[in-house]
Amino acid sequence: SFPRDEALRKKWIVALRRKDFVPGTRAVICSKHFKHSDYYQTHMDTLRLKKDAVPSIFDFPRHLLKVEKTRRILTKQSHSHIENSEPSTSCDNPPTVTRQAIVDGAVLSG
């Protein structure tokens, strides 16, 4: 049956992914929805569900599965001239960007 502890009960309800589900007093979840590690063995060799166990094995329809979205990082490439030593006249080759900085009187190119 569902746990009486409200925090754990809520975890079980969330794990089920059923909208507006409120378990009745006789509601149960089948053992196949728990991992083997969610159980402990008693001295009588029976398996008991651990007090903090949450059901985690489900065969949800595809639309209910959580999808990990990957993020792509877009980089912006500049084709502008900052201080170009030679102007480009060709449209086929994008212009090369040359940057210069003056540090303590010396010109640094990069």
Output the keywords.
110 residues; alpha+beta; two-stranded antiparallel ribbon; 1 helix
Helix content: 10-25%
> Beta-strand level of the residues, as a percent range?
5-15%
**Biggest sheet features:** 2 strands, antiparallel
* Mean pLDDT over the full residue set: 77
Instruction: Give the strand order, joined by hyphens, for the main sheet.
Output: 1-2
> Nearest-angstrom radius of gyration?
31 Å
Tally of helical segments: 1
Morphology call: elongated
**Structural class by helix and strand composition:** alpha+beta
Explain what this protein looks like in three dimensions.
It is a single chain. This protein is 10% helix and 13% strand. With 110 residues, it is α+β, with helices and mostly antiparallel strands. The protein has a domain at 6-64. It has a two-stranded antiparallel sheet with strand order 1-2. A two-stranded antiparallel sheet has the order 3-4. The chain starts with 5 loop residues before the first helix and ends with a strand. The mean pLDDT is 77.
What's this entry about, in short?
The protein is of the alpha+beta class and 110 residues long. It has 1 helix and 4 strands. The chain has one helix at residues 6-16, and strands spanning 39-41, 47-49, 100-103, 106-109.
What is the fold's blueprint, element by element?
Blueprint: H1 6-16, E1 39-41, E2 47-49, E3 100-103, E4 106-109
Antiparallel strand pairs: 1-2, 3-4
